[in-house]
Write a structure and sequence with these properties.
The protein has 2 helices and 15 strands. It has 268 residues and is mainly beta.
Length: 268
């Protein structure tokens, strides 16, 4: 049987560990420290960009430019933690990578206070994004017209806007929206895959595309349903397969494993 002295010593050691863990967590009143990063690089119109981040936001905007502009804001609760977050940008004439290096997560802390990084990136609209990967936060991709865009988000919100390209969106948990303010009758596609969450598509009335939408556990709402020239149903799951306004050369495929899908006629 352990003596009271040993018991007290063990309890004291446990208390010290807990206090150190809580000290690393801070409180809501702790000031958030910020540090900005800004760089401009000259790139080719057909450059290929990869982006990796863990926590925060990645906002990407395509424009008529031959530059890659990177603006980042680091946030953390301590000066040491802020210094430990590194932004690594490597640019060649036709390739570029933007990566965030976070310090290891504390082993004993009850909460992860390793900080966040928010990116705003401007690049040629004709560029490709071979990889955009964010573990948690918000992803926005706007105005891309290059060969392809591949974006993956673990947890949060994803938005694609006016992207006339082959865009592949994957979301593990959260909400996904893609929209077009106007329609261009060309060859492009949207492939959206959501594991857990809902998806919305906002499309003009004159949109012409082949639509495939399915959800294993959820509902599908479709404002273009009366324009279908082909429709199929799958037993045991909500699914539609149809041509809207003749189909055209565009294709939209949406799949939710657990969640609802809504296709909205934005300006009927």
């Amino acid at each position: 049987m352990r003596s009271p002295l040993i018991k007290r010593r063990n309890l004291r050691q446990i208390a010290i560990v807990l206090l150190l863990s809580l000290a690393g967590c801070g409180s809501e009143s702790d000031p958030v420290l910020e540090e900005t990063f800004e760089r401009v690089y000259t790139v080719q119109p057909n450059t290929d960009i990869s982006i990796q981040n863990r926590d925060g936001a990645v906002l990407v905007y395509g424009a008529n430019t031959n530059e890659l502009q990177v603006h980042a804001t680091k946030r953390a609760y301590s000066r040491m933690r802020l210094r430990e977050i590194a932004i690594d940008v490597s640019v060649q004439p036709t390739t570029g990578s933007i990566r965030t290096k976070f310090p290891p997560k504390p082993r004993w802390a009850l909460f992860d206070r390793s900080g966040t990084v928010d990116y705003t990136i401007l690049l040629p609209a004709t560029a490709s994004i071979s990889q955009l990967r964010l573990v948690a936060g918000e992803v926005v991709v706007d105005g891309m017209r290059g060969p392809s865009v591949h974006a993956w988000l673990g947890d949060g919100r994803m938005l694609a806007h006016n992207c006339f390209t082959r865009i592949d969106l994957a979301l593990q948990r959260g909400n996904l929206t893609f929209s077009y303010d106007w329609w261009e009758h060309g060859t492009f596609s949207v492939h959206a895959n959501i594991a857990q969450g809902s998806a919305w598509a906002f499309l003009p009335s004159d949109s012409a595309f082949h639509l495939v939408a399915e959800t294993a556990h959820g509902k599908i709402g479709n404002d273009f349903d009366n324009l279908a020239v082909e429709r199929t149903a799958s037993a045991g799951a909500a699914k539609i397969d149809m041509l809207v306004n003749g189909g055209g050369q565009a294709a939209i495929k949406m799949r939710a494993a657990d969640g609802d899908i809504k296709i909205v006629e934005a300006n009927p």
